[in-house]
Structure prediction request, 243 residues.
Amino acid sequence: METSFILNQSAEFIILHIIAFIEGLMVVKGGVKVNYTRKLNHFFVFFLPFIVKIYLPYTETLYTTLGMVAISLATFIIYIKPVRENVKLFGLMYAAFDRPEDRPHTLKWLFTQYLASYVAAVPLYLYFNHIGKPELLLIIILTNAIGDGLAEPVGVRFGKHKYNVRALFTSKKYTRSIEGSACVFITAVLVLLGFSHIFTGQQMVWALLLFPIGVTLAEAYSPHTWDSPFIFLVGGLVLMFII
Prediction:
């Protein structure tokens, strides 16, 4: 791995965990709902890499992509129970995304969601770059980051029309709201309009007809905490079909 990539990933790691520390303080000391800090962290996870890369650029290759995935997944080691219970700093950072209703599956769901998201996103990244349309992946990333990021806080604050979803490793059911899911739909439409220049007129019509409803249903029917991999998978397949 080139030095520029290592510097980039080191900076990203440090900044993300400083943010997690602050969010943990907001939960433990400030009484802020984990639902909000968790989604705040969601935004940083998606957008910080783009910001850091402006100041610490590196050449993207298959190896740097796989390295980024490996580093991201390895980060979860500091949050396993024996570590976070013995290192208070890590325990405080863990509090930023440990929703009480998710226990004892919080870390299990987070890790498997990250892993599944990468399994879906990396092939899409390679394919869209291969056909010369890398912006297609950015459409999915923005829809997921903004739409899904807003879905939970909007649902918590304004959600009146609830529906149940299942979760992995448990028979317990969780609730989502139509108001929260609508955030995904609206975001998808706006993002598509922002990238209309990469589509032909006919492709744009199909994109507006299929992509927003596809990713909205993916978010709505995905298992609890597993929104991202389903949004990447369904969104990617829809855009591949349209192109």
